Automatic annotation (TrEMBL), chain A:
Keyword flag Cell inner membrane: no
Alphabetized Pfam families for the sequence: PFO_beta_C, TPP_enzyme_C
Thiamine pyrophosphate enzyme TPP-binding domain sequence ranges: 48-194
Cofactors required: thiamine diphosphate; Mg(2+); [4Fe-4S] cluster
Keywords from the UniProt entry: Iron, Iron-sulfur, Magnesium, Metal-binding, Oxidoreductase, Thiamine pyrophosphate
Source organism per UniProt: Tumebacillus amylolyticus
Entries under InterPro entries matching the protein: 2-oxoacid:Fd_oxidoreductase (IPR051457), OFOB (IPR011896), PFO_beta_C (IPR032686), THDP-binding (IPR029061), TPP_enzyme_TPP-bd (IPR011766)
Protein name as annotated: 2-oxoacid:ferredoxin oxidoreductase subunit beta
UniProtKB/TrEMBL annotation, chain B:
Residues of the Pyruvate:ferredoxin oxidoreductase core domain: 479-569
Domain of life: Bacteria
SUPFAM superfamilies documented for this protein: Pyruvate-ferredoxin oxidoreductase, PFOR, domain III (SSF53323), Thiamin diphosphate-binding fold (THDP-binding) (SSF52518), TK C-terminal domain-like (SSF52922)
Domain called Pyruvate/ketoisovalerate oxidoreductase catalytic: residue spans: 14-175
Name of protein: 2-oxoacid:acceptor oxidoreductase subunit alpha
Residue ranges annotated for the Pyruvate flavodoxin/ferredoxin oxidoreductase pyrimidine binding domain, each copy included: 210-452
Entry keywords, A to Z: Oxidoreductase
InterPro entries: 2-oxoacid/accept_OxRdtase_asu, PFOR_II, Pyruvate:ferred/Flavod_OxRd, Pyrv/ketoisovalerate_OxRed_cat, Pyrv_Fd/Flavodoxin_OxRdtase_N, Pyrv_flavodox_OxRed_cen, THDP-binding, Transketo_C/PFOR_II
Length: 288, 576
């Protein structure tokens, strides 16, 4: 049985107090709790402070390109569905440059857990506005305040076909852990958007701000995460400042329905094709 | 030439031009002709002008559709206008009687045949393709039984009625011309090789087939002419071998999915054309620095931008060679023919895996979408050599966590990789610079050492490239050297047959990166070098000058109108 130590790798380099520490810790604890072995887990990230997570996490990993964690992760999952694949990154990474991939990963329902450390700002590039920055938010690139409406990742995921959509907060480690675990157990694409404050560049969306404003649906009586209309309505009512499992549906995962679906990972399929079958493939072109 | 003939059918897109051409191409291949079939088409679904040309030989493989034309079947006037210049003296135009044919050429034999009317009489206008085939068969003096056999094979499963209908249509065309133009004939020379079993295939199919046989189990791609057929073929054939095919949301995703899948241990590739290759440039660097195998197939078309999507060119070469940010070692292969597409894709997978780098295979529309008949493929070349992957035993023998994925202790520059799932093989593949275990670094000596390690692979590869990276024919020390890359092989070779009295050499590049430096000696000897470059800026010429010099000897021969080089283009350039 793997321990916490097995899922640790190198010292994390985030600013003290950064919300991303909790995400890493929660992920490590969940993997231990689920009895996973480090070699069977693969953590793929994009670029940004949040993207460093794949280096600090003790499983196999791919620290890919800005916005490209999802295609990388999907390639890995296509190759080996027996791996537990986690994709992770920031809001700029996932909802800015990578938003196209995000929508399509939802549609495909690839069995990946996608954790977005949403700090409403670009951290690594030192404080520009992000697609989730609220309208009017002042940053280095929005001196008069952001002019655009923010992206709404929860709604976007739900309408795009994600089968598990949750939101957590780095300031509530217990719930964060539970949601990551539920997401990892869920078969299909799960989005866990985590409010993960950037203590260096975002002076508005702080731990205190989230604590004051968050509505926790897990504690809300009568909230039914299988009811899509209810989910969309309640998320809108809180202006997306809510946590919990917001939406969940059971649907076959991509690797189960893809043409050529195999019981085991593609990586275990033999590569050699018997000679007579090679001949048969060639014979398709024979004009006899 | 007496051992050859050429035939073409032209009309509006959507008029069944391809199916008409396919019928004849198939019958001729069955009969024992070597053929090359060329599709000329436009980026429209209906309208415009399209044609299908077949060049058939009784003696040799044909790798190119030929400069001239013996017989043209015209479904409309535009077909005559667009193609009459290609007809030889005394060439034949067989046109649909639905229009009054006009030609500016003299000395052609023009026959009017009510192709559409006869088809309509039979209750199906589409069947005019069989009427045209029948009429063509009479002119070419091909025994109708060959067509009957083909019709039965093609339609037999769909019922006798359809077989009969097609036979009737064929006979109508045959009899009409026999009665009305009995003397208009261009008898096809007798095919002499054993008639059965020949393959008819285009380069895209050859790539798809080669990929599947050589262990590719995942293809992620985004549709684009002229590469889409690769996706189709693999989609139809790979799933039964446990492989997966994914139509990605764009080329960025496609390429990165292929990298992810390769990282996870599955031989994977992506296929595209120009604009798609541009989108993959960021990913190319990702494969390079993370040292993940990657195969990209780029079927080149006319550029820049969406340029000439249905025309051929060799203008993505600079992109393949130099594209992406930073510096990434890579292999660039340019297959020289349709069968060569099969062999080179197999090589690409082995090289990508052995050297853990991107291999870009640049074919082009000429060989990608056009078909050739040939004897067979050599299955003994299929050799799935999986190299430089650590074994579980090796990992078990290491101390816990001691695996160095990017170990500098390697002469070849290649460090063995582990595959996710292997115990004690943990590493994080990184697009940032990293030290030996994969941790991000910025320190100077390590950065230098890792760069040097990655580029050392090319030193080893360079030694291996001279065996297959080019082909040479001609005088040992030629006066005139004609140089080409990839698909121009066929036309240059035919052009050299008209170089009597010249001391000539023909050098055809198959590998552009690393550059096969053994070719130097031919340049050294030659007084004059003509570089046949199917692009505007002379990309091959530039590469040669950059790699080995000889600036003063190089004369680029350029073509960038969307068409492949003709033999005449080359002969004229060389002989003046
Ligand atoms: C193609 C490309 N464009 C831009 C960048 C620069 N870049 C690196 S991280 C980043 C933004 C990161 O923001 P976010 O995803 O919100 O992550 P955070 O640092 O806040 O965790 C940008 C723009 C890049 N690496 N690649
Ligand atoms: S800049 Fe912000 S997001 Fe980045 S490590 Fe520091 S606190 Fe975290």
């Amino acid at each position: 049985m793997a321990t916490m130590a097995d899922f640790r790798y190198d010292k994390a380099t985030w600013c003290p107090g950064c919300g991303d520490f909790s995400v890493l810790a929660a992920l490590q604890q969940v993997c231990v709790r689920m009895g996973l072995e480090p070699e069977d887990v693969c953590c793929v990230s994009g670029i940004g402070c949040s993207g460093k997570i794949s280096q600090h996490f003790g499983s196999y990993g791919f620290h890919s390109l800005h916005g490209r964690s999802l295609p990388t992760a999907q390639g890995i999952k296509m190759a080996n569905q027996d791996l537990t694949v986690i994709a992770a990154g920031g809001d700029g990474d996932g909802y800015g440059i990578g938003v196209g991939h995000f929508v399509h990963a939802c549609r495909r329902n690839v069995d990946i857990t996608y954790i977005v450390m949403d700090n409403h700002i670009y951290g690594l590039t030192t404080g520009q506005s992000s697609p989730t920055s609220k309208k009017g938010f002042k940053t280095k690139t929005s001196p008069q305040g952001v002019a655009e409406e923010p992206i709404k990742p929860l709604e976007l995921a739900i309408v795009s076909g994600a089968s598990f959509v949750a939101q957590a907060f780095s300031g509530d480690l217990k719930q964060l852990q539970r949601l990551i675990e539920e997401g990892m157990k869920h078969k299909g694409f799960s989005l866990i958007n985590v409010f993960s404050p950037c203590v260096t560049f975002n002076r508005v969306n702080t731990y205190e701000w989230f604590k004051e404003n968050i509505v926790n649906f897990d504690e809300e009586e009568g909230y039914d995460p299988t009811n899509k209309a209810m989910a969309l309505q309640r998320i809108a009512e809180t202006d997306s400042v809510c946590t919990g499992i917001l939406y969940q549906e059971q649907r076959p995962a991509f690797h189960e329905v893809v043409l050529g679906a195999t019981e085991q990972g593609t990586v275990k399929v033999p590569l050699e094709i018997p000679n007579d079958e090679m001949q048969a493939l060639i014979d398709q072109f024979r004009r006899a | 030439m007496t051992n050859e003939f050429t035939w073409k059918v032209g009309g509006a897109q959507g008029e069944g031009i391809d199916s008409t051409g396919e019928i004849l191409a198939t019958v001729l291949t069955r009969m024992g002709y070597y053929i090359f079939a060329y599709r000329h088409f436009m980026s429209l679904v209906k309208g415009g002008h399209t044609n299908y040309k077949i060049r058939a030989s009784t003696t040799d493989h044909v790798y190119y559709h030929g400069d001239d034309l013996d017989m043209l079947v015209a479904f409309d006037q535009l077909s005559i206008q667009e193609n009459e210049d290609e007809l030889i003296e005394g060439g034949i135009i067989l046109h649909d009687a639905k229009f009054q044919a006009q030609t500016k050429r003299e000395g052609l034999r023009v026959c009017s045949v009510p192709l559409l009317d006869m088809a309509k009489e039979l209750g199906n206008p589409i069947i005019k393709n069989m009427v045209a085939a029948g009429a063509s068969a009479y002119v070419l003096d091909i025994d109708p039984s060959n067509f009957y056999e083909q019709i039965e094979q093609q339609f037999g499963k769909k019922g006798q009625e359809l077989v009969d209908l097609n036979k009737t249509a064929f006979n109508k065309g045959y009899d009409y011309i026999k009665e009305n133009y009995p003397d208009v004939r261009r008898p096809a020379p007798q095919a002499t090789r054993p008639s059965k079993g020949y393959l008819l295939m285009n380069g895209n199919e050859a790539i798809g087939l080669g990929a599947v046989l050589n262990g590719c189990r995942i293809l992620a791609a985004y549709p684009i002419t002229p590469a889409t057929e690769i996706l189709y073929w693999v989609l139809a054939n790979l799933p039964k071998y446990g492989g997966k095919v994914l139509q990605a949301e764009d080329e960025i995703a496609a390429c990165i999915m292929a990298i992810g899948a390769n990282y996870a241990g599955v031989r994977s590739m992506t296929s595209t054309s120009g604009p798609g290759l541009s989108l993959m440039m960021e990913a190319l660097g990702m494969a390079g620095i993370s040292e993940t195998p990657l195969v990209i197939v780029d079927v080149m078309r006319g550029g820049p931008s969406t340029g000439l999507p249905t025309k051929t060119e060799q203008s993505d070469v600079n992109g393949a060679l130099f594209g992406s940010h930073g510096e990434t070692p890579r292999v660039v292969i340019v297959p020289t023919s349709i069968p060569d597409c099969f062999y080179q894709i197999g090589r690409a997978f082995n090289l990508a895996e052995e050297y853990q780098l991107p291999v870009i295979v640049c074919s082009d529309l000429l060989i990608g979408m056009n078909k050739m008949g040939f004897q067979d493929l050599d299955l003994s070349t299929v050799d799935i050599a999986r190299k430089n992957i650590v074994t579980q035993e090796q990992l078990d023998a290491l101390e816990k966590g001691a695996f160095k994925r990017y170990s500098l202790d390697t002469e070849s520059g290649v460090s063995s990789r582990s595959i996710p799932g292997m115990k004690n093989g943990r590493y994080c593949a990184l697009t940032n610079e990293h030290e030996e275990t994969g941790l991000e670094i910025e320190d100077v000596p390590m950065r230098k050492a890792q760069m040097e390690k990655r580029f050392r692979k090319l030193d080893v590869l360079e030694k291996n490239i001279n065996d297959w990276g080019f082909e040479y024919k001609g005088a040992e020390t030629p006066d005139v050297l004609i140089v080409g890359m990839g698909s121009t092989q066929a036309q240059i070779e035919e052009a050299t047959r008209q170089m009597d009295g010249l001391s000539w050499g023909h050098l055809q590049f198959r590998c552009l990166a690393p550059f096969p430096k053994d070719t130097q000696k031919y340049f050294q000897a030659a007084k004059k070098v003509y570089v046949i470059d199917n692009n505007y800026t002379g990309q091959l010429t530039g590469l040669i000058a950059r790699e080995i010099g000889f600036h003063d000897k190089l004369t680029p021969v350029l073509k960038y109108d969307g068409n492949p080089f003709t033999i005449r283009d080359i002969v004229t350039a060389v002989k003046g």
